[in-house]
UniProtKB/TrEMBL annotation:
InterPro entries: HAMP_dom, HATPase_C_sf, HATPase_dom, His_kinase_dom, HisK_dim/P_dom, HisK_dim/P_sf, TCS_sensor_his_kinase. It is found in: Membrane. The lineage of its organism: Bacteria, Pseudomonadati, Pseudomonadota, Gammaproteobacteria, Lysobacterales. It catalyses: ATP + protein L-histidine = ADP + protein N-phospho-L-histidine. Residues 162-215 form the HAMP domain. It comes from Luteimonas salinisoli. CDD domains: HisKA (cd00082). GO terms for cellular component: plasma membrane. The chain crosses the membrane at residues 12-38. Residues 223-428 form the Histidine kinase domain. PROSITE patterns: HAMP, HIS_KIN. Keywords: Kinase, Membrane, Phosphoprotein, Transferase, Transmembrane, Transmembrane helix, Two-component regulatory system. It is an enzyme of class 2 (transferase). This is histidine kinase.
Amino acid sequence: MSAPRRGLHRRVMLMLTGFTLGVAALFGAYAITFMYAVEDRFFEAQLEDEAAWQLRQRAATGAWAVPRSAHVRLHEDAAELPDEVRTVLEREPRRVEFPGRDGRHYHLHALDDRSGARAWLVAEVSGQLVVRPMRGRILQLLGWSAAAVVLLALLAGHRLARRTTAPLSRLAAAVADMRPDRLPEAVPGGFGDEETAVLARGLDDLVGRIREFIAREQEFTRDASHELRTPLAVIRSAGERLAREPGLGDAARTQLDHIRQSAAQLEQTVDMLLALAREGDAQPAAPAPPARVLPVLERVVVEQAPLLEDKAVSVDVQVAPDASMPVPQAVLHVLLSNLVGNAFAHTAAGEVGIAMDAGTLRIFNTGHAIEPALRDSLYQPFARREGSAGFGLGLAIARRLCARHGLELHVDGDARGITTTLAAAGTPPPP
């Protein structure tokens, strides 16, 4: 496992940077909007003051007076308004601010006296604008201020994120170095925050339990060869000698066949368990060369032949001499022993056909169809049909062993019999 990247620290910094930039941009926009609003309100107040004075002059003299400010003009006819103002005002009668050509900018205020006369005050304020000439400097000031704030926030955030994520990073580094064959004696402690300390204690307890499980599995691997296989070999040998006794009755011979069949299936189960245990304990090694199928299959058929004694069963093998499977030879032998042994054991009469085409090995045997109630749990431990002499473990263990080595195992059946297929994962089905 590669060393963990500082993903959490980086995400915290990115979130803090984005938040700071967002806040700076938001308040910068508020500041610029406020300046424009204050400037517009100043011009509106100026026009309102001029409008009040004009209305007083109109009431006193009966005529409009000359505006007091040089940048303000009074128009009694809408046709006299500047083109930029008149064109927009026709579409938007309530508008009071108008952009003009060549940098000009207008503010408008309508006058209505008591006699119904109407006039317009137009202020061309391009010379009185304060924000526009300073806009570049203001934006530059806001930009530098935002950069300074972001830098300060990043420095503070880096320190805070480092202090916050450092315990978790140390714990992640310790977990990344763990291997099933190289578990630490204890998960490092000394974490400052309570949450990480609780996680470290939980991982320490879990590592201790895993170490105990591995030790028990290794002890089982060492002891199973003698403690399990030797008694089974004695049972098988005694059964073979007893089967040669001429005075053995039919009923006794039937019971003896059951004993021999159960012992053979138990031997296969033990072999697969040992294969799984050895694979779990083994160090990673260079990939083994593909195993040739036919020599292993011939050996397995001979070994499992006692299961066909006194049965009217024919065996047909159609496997090319150069056919191979991408697994070690020992693993292929264990798998074929289980699958071929199952086919021999569950065929009372008929045939067992073994063929390989396009990288897929098929084992077909006549016999009982798979019961509908058994289909969903076929690969589960202790799943077996009614009356079977097996333990219901072989197929489940075989599938685990296949998964360990990148193989796919499928079992299907109909009224004619049962077909078992074995192939490398991703192998397309043959035509």
